Amino acid sequence: MKALEFREVSCRYPGQRENLVEKLSFSIEPGSFHCIIGASGCGKSTLFRMICGLLTPVSGTILRDGAPLSEIERACGYMPQRDMLFPWRTVGENLALPLEVGSALPKAERNARIEEALADVGLAGLADRMPEELSGGMRQRAAFARTMLTGSSLLLLDEPFSALDALTRVSMQEWLLEQWLRHRMTILFITHDVEEALFLSTSVLAVGSTPICSLTEIPVPLPDRRRRSDLVRPELTRLKEGLMGMLRGQVPA
């Protein structure tokens, strides 16, 4: 059974005449990690909005775990570029949000899950801190923990590290890879950074044109447990150059 499947899906935003997605079909396997790359504005985030149920296709079917989205009650784990932590709530209270919505969990059990999630991302004991007291990387880890608490096996990460400085970004990439290896959730990750895509994913899904009518799957020839030094391998260098050339070709002269 596929973790996610698009069948001849077309979509456009209300008020628009042209489709941004046109008869798109693709699928991903459970436990896989795919990075989606493509030029800015090509419709990558639109795919996430459809998967989350925030945007309804004009035609076609989207399946999660073999069932149409309309029959799925479970929330999808979605993490945008900004951490979106509410500044007036503590870190623990921010993490409690997915447990408060539609949940009848006793407060003690909610707190236990929050503490476990914080420990899992290296933030044990910080539940009472305010978001402003955390560094950028710590805030992103807290946001990831909140995403995990949705209980969804499918995580949608929309450029979550793009606002971080270079060193923190590298650290967070390595941290996320370790999280995936530990939990084996299914991840779709949008990025403009080809090197980030190659380091993180089992395969890259490349948007070739707008409207999006296909995603070209490009396997990454690295083991799941990898090192950053692997990126200088000749086959990875060639793959990076090819993907960069494809992206440059999508940018108007």
Secondary-structure map with pairings?
Layout: E1 4-11, E2 21-28, E3 33-37, H1 44-51, E4 59-64, E5 67-68, E6 77-79, H2 91-95, H3 97-100, H4 107-120, H5 136-148, E7 154-158, H6 166-183, E8 186-190, H7 194-200, E9 203-207, E10 215-219, H8 234-250
Parallel strand pairs: 3-8, 3-9, 6-7, 7-8
Antiparallel strand pairs: 1-2, 1-4, 4-5, 9-10
Helix pairs in contact: 4-5, 5-6
Briefly summarize what is shown.
The chain has 253 residues and is of the alpha/beta class. The protein has helices at residues 44-51, 91-95, 97-100, 107-120, 136-148, 166-183, 194-200, 234-250; strands at 4-11, 21-28, 33-37, 59-64, 67-68, 77-79, 154-158, 186-190, 203-207, 215-219. The chain folds into two domains: 1-76 and 155-253, 3-Layer(aba) Sandwich (Rossmann fold); 84-151, no CATH class.
Structural class: alpha/beta
Radius of gyration: 19 Å
Strand order of the largest sheet: 6-7-8-3-9-10
Number of discrete helical segments = 8
**Whole-number count of domains:** 2
Largest sheet properties: 6 strands, mixed
Strand content: 15-25%
CATH superfamily membership of the largest domain, which one?
A: P-loop containing nucleotide triphosphate hydrolases
Mean pLDDT: 88
- Assembly level: single chain
**Span between termini:** 43 Å
Low-confidence stretches: none
Helix content: 25-40%
Report the CATH topology name of the largest domain.
Rossmann fold
**Number of DSSP E strands:** 10
Give the name of the CATH architecture of the largest domain. 3-Layer(aba) Sandwich
Spatial shape: globular
Order of helices and strands: EEEHEEEHHHHEHEHEEH
Task: Using the coordinates above, name the CATH class of the largest domain.
Answer: Alpha Beta
